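Attaching the record inline, Q. Sequence:
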Amino acid sequence: MADVTSSAAAPVVRLIEEFHKLPGIGPKSAQRLTYHILRAPAEEATALAQAILEVKEKIAFCSVCQNVTDSDPCLICANPERDPSLLCVVEEPLDILALERTGSYNGVYHVLHGVLSPMDGIGPEDLKVEELLARLKGGSVQEVILATNPNLEGEATSMYLSRLLRPLGVRVTRLARGLPSGADLEYADDVTLSHALEGRQEMS
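Structure, as predicted:
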């Protein structure tokens, strides 16, 4: 990317480099985004900058479920109409949005913020596992649904959690039919996710 931006002004190069740090943004996409910002009205660029700052200043993790929120507890945890006996464990906050779109689930959630990945040096201590175990000590949770993605890391994480949770006396289930192997939860359609929730199976 250095040779492409060698003739560009320093602020332009910096913005390209910052965009390039974002997941899924390659060098060319970073350049397109940067030149879009340059061509955009000043108020549009200012609104984007303010939105980024506001997210960093006002958004934190819910002390109960670890979801991102601007209130603590989050709206889902604070909702008295949700079933606290049903706890769905997901990898990332985006997975909650996907499951909520289905309208098929009325329990609560717990966000791990990642999956086990020894290749990347990510172990249980890097996830919100201790916080999950702490939630189960009260005895109000009767079923834990492991809704990690159906890929290698997601399956390994589910198996690890299953072995950890079974001795606690809670029912441990896993999302079942409808989710193709290797797919991410956030990209699944609503009907597929609804079927996966309805067809969840006991973890062995």
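The chain has a mean pLDDT of 89. The first helix runs from residue 10 to 20.

More tomorrow.
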